[in-house]
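Anyone up for a design puzzle?
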């Protein structure tokens, strides 16, 4: 006899933890001239925020409290703000031509990847109250969604819920296409965040290309 799942299984912790650790590792590798703080500052704060979250939900995101919600949101904000400060410094370096050769491309690539990870975390935390709230029993109301995924239109996948990798894909396509692709932002706040991310990605890419042309010439 088949059984009907009353609500989707809770999301795995591992993909989010790995993405955060990759972001923190990239921060350690950035050159000092594009940093506002010592290279160890953001990774240290990130680990301090991530550790209790892993202890609280080591395998799956099954429970949430006020403090865990604040810590998780704070981690996403920390990584995003740190990334955007690095973007600003990188743009300044590119405009003044201080960075040299391959360092320009390597730094821009690190910032670009970190931006995708960080904004993916923001979207993941933002949509429908976060990963734990999205798994609560009850109707899956698209009217309350910050993002509308194509899977939601398939009646056969009524128990489908987005995971972090879905939001990571949204962030990546927004950085590449500078616009949403298959997943649509539904609220003003989601649209404004995506617009800001796309604008930053466009400026960074345009300056990197122009600097690369100057290097080649």
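Challenge accepted. My sequence:
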């Amino acid at each position: 006899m088949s059984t009907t799942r009353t609500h989707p299984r809770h999301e795995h912790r591992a993909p989010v933890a790995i993405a955060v650790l990759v972001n923190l590792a990239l921060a350690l590798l950035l050159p000092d001239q594009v940093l506002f703080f010592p290279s160890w500052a953001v990774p240290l704060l990130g680990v301090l925020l991530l550790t209790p979250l892993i202890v609280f939900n080591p395998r799956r995101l099954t429970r949430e409290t006020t403090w865990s919600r604040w810590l998780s949101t704070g981690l996403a904000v920390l990584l995003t703000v740190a990334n955007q400060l690095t973007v600003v410094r990188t743009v300044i370096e590119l405009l003044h031509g201080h960075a040299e050769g391959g360092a320009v491309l390597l730094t821009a690539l690190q910032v670009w990847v970190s931006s995708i990870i960080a904004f993916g975390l923001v979207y993941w935390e933002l949509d429908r109250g976060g990963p734990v709230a999205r798994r609560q029993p009850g109707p899956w109301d698209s009217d309350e969604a910050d993002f509308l995924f194509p899977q939601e239109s398939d009646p056969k996948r009524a128990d489908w819920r987005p995971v972090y990798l879905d939001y990571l894909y949204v962030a990546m396509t927004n950085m590449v296409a500078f616009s949403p692709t298959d997943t649509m932002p539904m609220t003003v706040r989601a649209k404004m965040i995506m617009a800001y991310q796309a604008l930053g990605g466009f400026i960074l890419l345009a300056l990197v290309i122009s600097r690369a042309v100057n290097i080649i010439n």
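A detail worth pointing out: Residues 14-216 form one domain.
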